[in-house]
Amino acid sequence: MTTTAPRPTTVGALRARVIKFAERVTTPLVPADYLDVIDPLRSSADLRGRIVAIHPETRDAVSVVIKPGRGWRGHTPGQYVRIGVDVDGVRQWRAYSLTSTTGQDTIAVTVKAIPDGKVSNHLVRRATVGTIVQLDQAAGEFTLGEQAPPKILFLTAGSGVTPVMGMLRNMTDTGSDVVVVHSAPTADDVIFGGELRLLARQGRIRLVEKHTDVDGMLDVSTLQHLVDDLADRQTWACGPAGMLDALESRWAAEGMADRLHTERFRPTIITAGDGGDVTFSKSGTVVEATGAETLLDAGEAAGVLMPSGCRMGVCFGCVVPLRQGAVRDLRTGDLTTAAPGDNVQIQTCVSAAAGPCDIDL
Amino acid sequence: MTTTQIDPNPTTAHLTAEDVENLGRELDAIREQIIASRGERDAAYIRKVIDGQRKLELGSRAVLLFSLFPPAWFVGTVGLSISKIVENMEIGHNVMHGQWDWMRDSKIHSTTWEWDNASPAEMWKHSHNEVHHTYTNVRGKDHDLGYGIMRVDENQKWVPFYLAQPLWNFINACVFEYGIAAYDLQIGKYLKGRTDKADFQARAKRVLAKIRKQAARDYLLHPLLSGPSALPTLTANLTANLVRNLWTHSVIMCGHFPEGVQTFEKHSIDGETRGEWYLRQMLGSANISGSRLLHFMSGNLSFQIEHHLFPDLPSNRYQEIAPKIQDVFQRYGLTYTTGSLPRQVGSAWKTVFKLSLPNDFTVTDLLRRRRRPAAAAVERPVLKAA
Q1: How many CB atoms lie within 10 A of CB B134?
Q2: pTM for this structure?
Q3: I need a surface site. Which of A226, B123, B218, B278 has the fewest CB within 10 A?
């Protein structure tokens, strides 16, 4: 079928007819429901993938290699992918940075088990090869852009190294001058430690490893002692919110905010909303939500089928229309209001009720 | 009254209000235990059932492409009948109850599911989940009591129309999917002029559109695809739908019509507590005893009592909690109404025949009047929990 022709071509019309016919033959289901039984990874299916390998990286991190369905459109190094994993029978969506080289028929994400992390602990300790997972297309702006700049600083902490590794593995011939400053609790906790050290030995990067158990937390104010030409470099940083906040204020103060690119893994919760009754109008569910509870959590707890993704306000996988009412952004404290008919799109994973509100779900 | 809000009722007269609330707490605990233990095993179960049903349907319809050969007709028809029954009962009914919503899989969710039945999911969910399950066996509120075409409780007022109700019931059984659609559409209410015309017409349009699609699939497109086997495929599909109709009708009739099941007066539920609601579900439902296969093929509606107590628990867990529920019945001195399929179907049909006549005129009633004291106890065809 063509998307540019002003009217459908004969082939397009025929195809549309065949699809229509197939739908009538399979009603009340759709042909895809039966095709899923036969080939869940075919190109027209909802995007899924099969876990083909799981490689341990550290004692609490693994790389999960996934063969995506034929609908996968590829990714740019540094991007993340939303993955839907069934944990204890319940589908949970999370976003993970892609760490594999592009142009292969598999992709990889690297996951560190965080305390009480449902999905991360499942993927690190219990997931098995052969499992089908749900996928979304790759997304995210944390990339090097068209042309890698000549001088780069990657500044990472903990699992913040994952999107950077995705970029490093794909920068074999850019000739850029790359410095990697990475902070982790101990040398053993450095995800991709061996690979980073090897890259450093080969002279492809300069690696500055900091271990918080001996060196303490990475001090942003003395960063110039580690990297003397900070101002000359484009910096990509990923790690805990505290580190990123400190970086952003220093770069802003020195007037080089445009040379800093950050990727956040967790939302920073600043303000609580006021709470209120949340009505999910399509499902006819009403819940009383507190001002500290996200609409996503409140809806899920009430059994509403909530779309979700990173759960930290990054991926926009959870966006739904607010039909009316007021919600507060838990990161900024900003209030969003909607009058009937407005249908304001809101991110449920970082929004809390700020009075009664009506969600179109 | 010191007992409950339910009808002054000899079977519950021994329970104090406190007893009823304790009973409610015990049932809540059983429910909590299942909810806390729902997990991977259950998810794998429903996915396996859906996967198996779809393969069976594909296989059966493929075989029916060659239904000109009698063995193919037979195999395909049996397969398609089973597939349709499983699709309607163990899958459709239960998914639309929200029993699997906790998996957060948009493909197996009460808000997205549509079933192989004339009644659109949306309307069925309203009349079944919201009306029938809330007002179970409350006369004048639960229209499942005789579906508006029959009298299945002595307290329902007799009118001459009910004289032919064995016939109505048989016809309804044969065309059950259309019966359900008409029922969900509340045609009766409309004919009495108690629904908004425009609203009714809009809903009728949706039902007709679905019926058209369903009929086109089974009676036009699949026969056409079968080429020379068109006619046998048509009869095979007709047969499968008929088998599904008769089976589902029989199983569903066993849920609330057999003798021993109680009904409740309209105002008895005013201010009903959680415990009283549970009690009403316990007294208003009947089970079918039998093999695992019977439970599966009835969509676990053979555990009607457990289902009515906990309509949103996954169906594969009803069997597990049944002994605990029977224990509750026994300890609170209540009767767990159950029996084999033939016995319960027979009992339900007996009710239909008996109540086609007004209370005063039935022979059984005359007989019963003569030997009143013992009769009430003997009449109830129940197995008391062991």
Answers
A1: 13
A2: 0.85
A3: A226
